[in-house]
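Issue 218. Parser rejects a valid record. Input:
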Amino acid sequence: MKALRTLLDKAHPHFAKGGKLARFYPLYEAADSFIYTPGQVTAGSLHVRDAMDLKRVMITVVFALLPCFFMAMWNTGYQANSVLQVNADSVEGWRGLVIGLLGFGGDPASLYDNLLLGASWFVPIYLVTNIVGGLWEGLFSLVRGHDINEGFLVTGSLFPLICPPTLPLWQVALGISFGVVIGKEIFGGTGKNFLNPALTGRAFLFFAYPAQISGNSVWTAVDGFSGATALSRAAEGGVAAVSQMTSWFSAFLGTIPGSMGETSTLACLFGALVLVVSGIGSWRIMLSGLLGAGILSSLFLLVDSSTNPMFGLGPLWHLVLGGFAFGLVFMATDPVSGAMTEGGQWLYGVLIGSLCILIRVVNPAFPEGMMLAILFGNVFAPLIDQLVLKVHIKRRLRHVEG
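Output the parser choked on:
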C-alpha cells in the first residue's frame, strides 16, 4: 500500500492546478479518496468535528445492504432452481457456458448452487449499473470541474436490488442513466436532487418498458416461466390466495418472487438497525411509515369489501410483501430527498406509509405502491419542512411578543 501511496503522490502534480492533466483532476481525486481517507483534516478547538464524513456514510449504507445483496443472489437462484433444476442445457448464451464450466445450479437446497446461479443474473446488472452510472458521474464532474462524489456508491447499490432478475442489460443502462442524469445531475448533483435517483430510474423503466419490469413473467429467472408475485396474488384473491402461495414467515424471510434484493424483510430489519444505530437513517421516518401503513390497512380491514380482496390484507402482510420494508428503510430515509426537520419526518413517513397502502388497496391493478409513494413524498418533502419551520417560527414569535 505504501508503493501505491507513493505512486499517487508522484502523479498528483500532473493533475493539480497548472498540471498537464488538470482537467482530469476529479478522476484522480476520486481514485485517491476511494482508496485512502483524505489527508486534509480539521484542526483547532474552534471547529466542529464529526466522525462521520460522506465516505463513511456511504460505506455504512452499503454495509447495511449486505444481507440484501446476499438475498438478491440466493433467492434469485433459489426461485429459478425451485421451478426448474437449472443446468447448462436449460440456459442459453454465456450463462449456460459458465454453468457448465463451474458446475453449479440445479439443487434448490444447495446454498452454493443458489448463490452462484443467482449471481449470474445479479452481478451483470450490478456491474452495468455502476459502470454506466459511474461514467455519467465522472463526465458531469469533469464538465463542472468538481470532485466525483461518493454518493453514487449508494445509488449504484440500490438500483440493482430493485430490479427483476430478467431485466435486459441495455435497459439497466438506460434506467440508471435516466436516474443519474435526470433525477440528480441536472439539479446540481449529489445533495441537490429532490428525487431519489434509484427510484427515478426504476420509475422511468416501469412506464417506458412495462413488459420487462412488471407482469408475471419477469420475476423468476427461467425462460418462458410465468409466476405472479405475492402482491399480485393478493390483488386477485386476497389473503387466501397469498396463503396458498407462501406462509407469512417465508415472506418475512424473503423466499418469494420479486425484485432481487427487496423480498426479505429480515434483511431490511438488519439494515434498519445499522442505519438507526449509526445515526444515518431516521427512525422517525421508519416508525411513522409503519404507523401510517398499519393504521390505514387496519381501517381497510375493518371496512372490508366484497369486490376488492385487497381490503382483507392486514398490516402484517403488507409489511412483508413487495418493496414496503426495503423502500421504508433504504429509500424513504434518504437524507437528501426526504424531510429534514424532526416534525417533518413524522409527517413525511406517515404520508409515504399511508399512500403506499392507498395505492395497493384502492388500485389493485397496481399492487406495488411503495415506489410511487416515496417519489410522491420526495416531491412534498420541501413543503413539509417549510410548513414545520413556519409553525416553529410562529410559536417562538408568540413567546417573544408575550
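Fixed in the parser; the record now loads. Residues 45-49 have pLDDT under 50 and may be disordered.
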